Amino acid sequence: MRRKASLILLAFAVFFTALSPLMRWYAFPRLAKIPAGQYQTAVLEAKNPVLLDYGSMRAKKVSKVTVVQTLKGNVEESDKIERSAGRDVVVWDALSYIQGPDGKMVSKVPERYIFDAHSQEPVHATGEMVDGDQVKREGIEFKWPFLTEKRDYEYYDAQARLTRPIHYKGTTTFRGVKVYYFEQTIPWTKVPLPKSMPVKGITPESVAKTGTTRWYTTVRKFWVEPTTGAPVYGEEIQNNELRGGTLLGGRDKVTVFKGHVKMREDYIRSTVDLVDSNRVLVLLLTSYLPWGFLTLGVLLLALALWLEARGRRPDEPEPAPDREPEPVIA
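Below the sequence we write its predicted structure tokens.
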């Protein structure tokens, strides 16, 4: 019985030990993915920024500007692209809606971002766009890969329609969560005007006819939780200008927007809570289960060897039975 039990334990030990690397290196890359139907909203604010009044074409300081960023998973489109791409794909319909202190729209820029559900690499397919313009993204946007590394990444800037490095600057703690800090600088770059403008009659086409162009620079900062690759906080120090042409009334340039945009406090709390819960799920596949299976396998192996060793001990000699002494015949 001992030998049979030790063989069974040995089989389980081999099974759980083999399951440990399979869970980490085979199951995790296939099971960890962004859900196709994810919906997320973040609100950012710039306090006391400079904003252009298109009525007078004069820039002035205002109390605040609010940016509402929405990411909505388009399940129907992702299913359609998956059939042709042959892999799990996520389609995010994103919208950046900017409003002034009076609540009126300053601009709104829609995007369609298509990417691999597992690696977060861009997937180029029909419909990929920024503000109605077809684009071909390179690098990440909105989210880092699972198990983010301490290195620079290529990050796509939707306003400038270009990809530039976003640099790893160090590891820190944000609201009790270990995060990697990344920073990207986009130098002054000529960029298109938003197609949705706050004043009727002013369109990108009408502005282009005056010879006036829009320029933009920003310093982009992200604090990223490395296990999930999700930013828990973000900021931008941004500056937009109109330059040249007849629209400015002889001026060389005028500020469109200049301010320090930060995530609003209530959305920081909800984002940290969401990332914390998702982090546990990723750690389950990358750490808790693999190490747990390995430990269980080692314990079962030790128990099997112990039972086998006990089964191989020589049995102790049985005591001789007591017998009556036989008479001696002379």
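The two ends are 53 Å apart (CA to CA).
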